[in-house]
C-alpha cells in the first residue's frame, strides 16, 4: 500500500465514526425514533458511498467491515473525551465481532 492509499484509508475510516459521534445523537434527540432511522441511512450510506463507492478505502484482499472503524473510532473518542476505559470495552468487543462477522459474510460471496 502506498503512502497516499494509507492516508486515504485512514481518512475514510475516520469519517464514519466522526459522523456517528457528531450527528447520530442529535438526530435522535431532535426527531426521536425516525431520527435514528434517518441517521442510519444518512450516515452509514454516506460513509459507505465515500469508502467503497468512491474507493476512498484501499483494500488489499482482507475484508474488514465498517463496524471495525466505527467501534475503534467511537471507543477512542469516548476514552479521549474522559469516559472510563472499562465502560467502552463491551461495546468495542461487540463491534469487532460484528465487523468480523460482516467481513466473513461478504467474503463468502464477493
From TrEMBL:
It holds the Pfam family DUF6905. InterPro entries: DUF6905 (IPR054200). The chain crosses the membrane at residues 7-24, 30-50, 62-80, 92-109. Keywords: Membrane, Transmembrane, Transmembrane helix. This is Uncharacterized protein. It comes from Proteiniborus ethanoligenes.
Amino acid at each position: 500500500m502506498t503512502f497516499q492509499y494509507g492516508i486515504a484509508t485512514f481518512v475514510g475510516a475516520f469519517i464514519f465514526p466522526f459522523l456517528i459521534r457528531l450527528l447520530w445523537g442529535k438526530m435522535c434527540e431532535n426527531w426521536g425514533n425516525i431520527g435514528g432511522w434517518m441517521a442510519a441511512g444518512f450516515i452509514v450510506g454516506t460513509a459507505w458511498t465515500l469508502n467503497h463507492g468512491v474507493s476512498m478505502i484501499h483494500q488489499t484482499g482482507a475484508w474488514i467491515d465498517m463496524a471495525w472503524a466505527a467501534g475503534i473510532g467511537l471507543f477512542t473518542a469516548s476514552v479521549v473525551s474522559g469516559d472510563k476505559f472499562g465502560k467502552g470495552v463491551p461495546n468495542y468487543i461487540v463491534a469487532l465481532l460484528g465487523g468480523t462477522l460482516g467481513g466473513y459474510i461478504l467474503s463468502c460471496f464477493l
